[in-house]
Amino acid sequence: MISCLRGAGVEVVERHEPVWEGTRDAWRAGPATALRLARAELRLLRRPAERYDAVIVGYPGHFDLPAARRAARGAPVIFNPLVSLADTLVSDRARFQPGSLPARALSLVDRRALRAADVVVADTEQHARFLAELADLERVEVCFVGAEERIFRPGSPGAFTHALFVGKLIPLQGLKTILEAARLAPELPFRVVGTGQLDGLLETRPANVEWVPWVQYERLAGELHAAGAALGIFGSSDKAARVIPNKAFQALACGAPLVTADTPAARELLVGDQSALLVPSGDAQALAEALRRLASDDALRARVAAGGLAAYRRHASEDVLGRRWLSILERAR
User: Fold this and answer.
1) φ, ψ of residue 57 in degrees (nearest 5)
2) Which 3 state secondary structure label does DSSP give 1?
3) What DSSP character marks residue 230?
4) 285-301: b or e for each residue (b if 16 or more CB lie within 10 Å)?
5) By the 8 A CB rule, do 278 and 257 touch?
6) What confidence tens digit (pLDDT) does each residue in 157-206 have?
7) CA 20, 318, 221: angle at the middle one, nearest 5?
8) Residue 24: pLDDT band by 50, 70, 90 thresholds?
9) What is the Cα–Cα distance from 290 to 234, expressed in whole angstroms?
10) 175: left (phi > 0), else alpha (psi -120 to 50), else beta?
11) CA–CA dist 147, 91 (Å, integer)
């Protein structure tokens, strides 16, 4: 987002206090993290006030709205939450039971944060409708997530080598579906990069699945260039149907053939068999067959890769998103 804004000619001043740096598995956050968060918020509140045309609060900024209001000094506050905390930690990751005290508290945090902003920005139309209903908002703006083009640039298409998954191992990703697809297609190599909540599933992974717990962010483009297919998300939760993950945009920007779940959100950007292969959520058999198609058909792989890159450039490049963000800011003033 910052790169897009600067590319559109907007002067961006960053005001950041570290909380999550050095934490790979933020879902494990406990009292120590809560204390770091509280201290960071106090430091933000104590910063000297300056004059801005607008203040943007990004992910995960649900607790940052008071500091943003103070910094804005009457200028509009734009909140780009990316997720609902309750939807993520209760419905998706099952950290808390629905109806429990923490679940109700997270829902309250969501609503207050969304209502405290002058403008809320969601990453898809599906997500915008969800956030508007959650906080009883008249309108939520929409802007795709995109990819950092200083890192994610097109590579040269090659032969099918392996199917690549990159991401936090959380339920939304559909890791069970990916591993079952690997069992159904033992002739295809899979490479899983990431750690998280579902690490345990990889302890019994099939022999054709390689697991790499961590790759430096700057090396992810190289991972995508070397892959025969990039895997998106395959979870069957409501949240999975509302979002397009960052890694999908990264794959498209690199010209890697993308295979992901056929969801309402995915359809906002992608067309099946043209810019990606879309399979039913949670359907391991369909995923295995889609990967077999890519592995055995060089023309299909090249067509999907080119179509995905074209869709990215039309709808989600830094240039396109920069203009979109600029229009959101101008309407907010």
Assistant:
1) -105, 120
2) coil
3) E
4) ebbbebbbbbbeeeebb
5) no
6) 788 999 999 999 999 999 999 999 999 999 999 999 999 989 999 999 99
7) 65
8) low
9) 13
10) alpha
11) 27
